Amino acid sequence: MNLTDILKLDDRGLIPVITVDFYNNQVLMLAYANREAIEMSLKTGYAHYFSRSRNKLWMKGETSGHTQKIKQILFDCDEDTLLYKVEQKGAACHTSHRSCFYREFYRGEVREIEPVIEDFDGIIYKTEE
Amino acid sequence: MNLTDILKLDDRGLIPVITVDFYNNQVLMLAYANREAIEMSLKTGYAHYFSRSRNKLWMKGETSGHTQKIKQILFDCDEDTLLYKVEQKGAACHTSHRSCFYREFYRGEVREIEPVIEDFDGIIYKTEE
Asked: How far is A126 from chain B (nearest CA, A)?
């Protein structure tokens, strides 16, 4: 059975993909896939998407190294949304936040609720020489 | 600040909403909201969506009782996806599964990975009379 035969792509040939952290279910991002992106994800085991702005297939982390190894693939009751559970390397968001959903709306204000991820440089344990 | 002023709705005036369980982050469903659905969600504290098939506003659980009390509202880096963290009553899915994502695709097969939710009828503890 082919996954792409089960799914209902929209009139642009796309389907939304919710990507979450396999280990704690944190929602990392929402992106879109076309048939080719789904097939490449299945074939390689790494999340591929279709960029609507650049109008092309892309592998998540191809340049940043922040890849998403797919651990589980789910789809919803209407077969029109995918859910990838992934092992996320580093930040899923181009802003260096772990998740693209790093801001909340609370009582009329926008608040950042997540730090950016930075490489630990060991400063805390540096001793004077 | 108005949430609807921050968000970028698509050319149909819609934005995808990922809805997750506030307590364990399980993804429950993906639906769409228009400006009115967002405003009604903010005003009432309960998740409202816009049905693309019925072309109308609906409050989740209005007939089933399976309401979603919103605990937290997040949005993504592009401001084109919403994330509601909710207190879900009963099943989020019309199939009586807790989540609409109750099926996985695994090695060419589709598998149900969640039971349906049924009201507990106390049968286990019934004693013969």
From this structure: 35
Residue A28 CA to its chain's centroid (Å): 5
CATH number belonging to the domain at B3-112, selected among 3.40.50.720, 3.20.20.70, 3.40.640.10, 3.10.20.810: 3.10.20.810
> Among residues B10, B41, B32, B104, which one has the least CA distance to residue A42?
B104
Among A2, A75, A101, beta carbon nearest to B74: A101
What is the value of ipTM here, to two decimals?
0.92
Of B18, B72, B104, the CB nearest to A74: B104
- pLDDT per residue over B35-70, tens digit each? 999 999 999 999 999 999 999 999 999 999 999 999
Q: Enumerate the residues of chain B whose CB falls inside 8 A of the CB of residue A20.
A: 25, 27
Q: Which two tokens stand for residue B108?
A: 């060419």
